[in-house]
Amino acid sequence: MRAVLVLLLPMLVVLSACYTIPTASEAPPAAAASATAVTPQRLARWEDEWQEARQEVVVARQSAVSTGQPIPPEVDAEVTELLDRDLDAPSDEDRLQRLQDAVSDARRLAELVSAG
């Protein structure tokens, strides 16, 4: 039994040195927690991003139509849905999520339409 303890004790010391439990003084600052908070400025920034990304889709679609480049029907349907999408939401968190999703979709669709 003593031999087992003699062998295990150094391993436990090494393992305990690798793992530390953060104390209150090591906790992330409050600013880090507020970085994900939905603020009016953050919403406004994403609304601007949405307007820019939406415009990119409109321009890509107009360019494809004017040059006679075919747009696959399923992509065209997605573009129409995106441009008609209602981004209103009951909470700021939901609105932010909808804006982020719409920007992501718009950028993806702009590339698809541009690529033909």
Describe this structure in words.
With 116 residues, this protein is an all-alpha fold. Helix content is 74%, strand content 0%. It is built from 5 helices and no strands. The chain has helices at residues 2-18, 30-34, 40-67, 73-84, 92-115. Helix 4 (73-84) runs antiparallel to helix 5. The longest helix is centred in the middle third of the chain and has 28 residues, at 40-67. The protein is elongated. The mean pLDDT is 82.
Could you outline the blueprint of secondary structure elements for this entry?
Elements lengths: L1 H17 L11 H5 L5 H28 L5 H12 L7 H24 L1
Low-confidence stretches: none
Q: Give the SSE string.
A: HHHHH
Q: Give the C-alpha Rg.
A: 26 Å
Could you report the average pLDDT, rounded to the nearest whole number?
82
First and last CA, distance: 73 Å
- Number of continuous helical runs: 5
The main pleated sheet reads as: none
The total count of strands amounts to 0
How would you classify the helix and strand content by structural class? mainly alpha
Helix-residue proportion? over 70%
Q: What global shape is seen?
A: elongated
The amount of beta strand, in percent, is under 5%
